[in-house]
Amino acid sequence: MAKKSDSLKYIVSAAAFAALTMIMTAYLFHLPVGTNGGYVHFGDTMIFMAACCLPFPYAMTAAAVGGGLADLLTAPLWALPTVIIKSVMAFCFTSKNKNIICLRNVLGLPIAVAWTVFGYYVAEALLFGSWGVPLAGIPGNLIQGFGSAALFLVFGKAADHFGLRRRLFS
C-alpha cells in the first residue's frame, strides 16, 4: 500500500500530465485532418511519459482526462472514444523501470500506435456507419502516433539524463 504522501504525489503528477496532454493535444501542433473532426497532434507524447512515470491507475486516469478534455474542447464527438482508447494505451508501458527509456517502453510504442489506429478506425466506423471511409484516417493516425513516439523518445532520453523518475518519484 502506498503511503499517503506517495498517493498525493501521484495524484498531483497525474493532474499535471493530464493538463500537458490536453494542451499538447488541443493547442500545440493541432492540425485538423479529414472530414469527420479528426486532427493530428503530439499529445500522445505526454500519455507515453505519464505511463512510464506513474503507476498504471494514475497513468490511465491522466491519459483519459487529458485526451478527453482536449476532445471536449475541440471535437466533442470524439471524447468518449478518446477516453477509452487513450486509457488502454497506458497498458503498453511500465513505470517499474528506473529509466523511462527501457526495452518495454520502446517496444510499447508501436503497440500503442497500432492500438490507437485500430481504436479510432473502429470508433469512426461505428460513429459514421461505414467500414470503408475510416480507412482515409489511418495515415493521419500513423503520423500522429509515430510523431508522438519520436518526440517521446527525445523527451524520455532527456528526462532520463536528468534523473526525472528518481527525483520526482523516489
Could you walk me through the main structural features you see in this protein, from its secondary elements to its overall organization?
The chain is globular. It is 70% helix and 2% strand. With 170 residues, the chain is an all-alpha fold. A two-stranded antiparallel sheet has the order 1-2. The protein starts with a helix and ends with a helix. It has helices at residues 4-26, 44-53, 56-74, 79-89, 103-128, 138-161, 164-169; strands at 31-32, 39-40. The model has no long low-confidence stretch (mean pLDDT 91). It has one domain (7-169): Arp2/3 complex 21 kDa subunit ARPC3. Helix 1 (4-26) runs antiparallel to helix 2 (44-53) and helix 3 packs antiparallel against helix 4. The longest helix is centred in the C-terminal third of the chain and has 26 residues, at 103-128.
Features:
mainly alpha; 2% strand; two-stranded antiparallel ribbon; 170 residues; Arp2/3 complex 21 kDa subunit ARPC3; 2 strands; globular
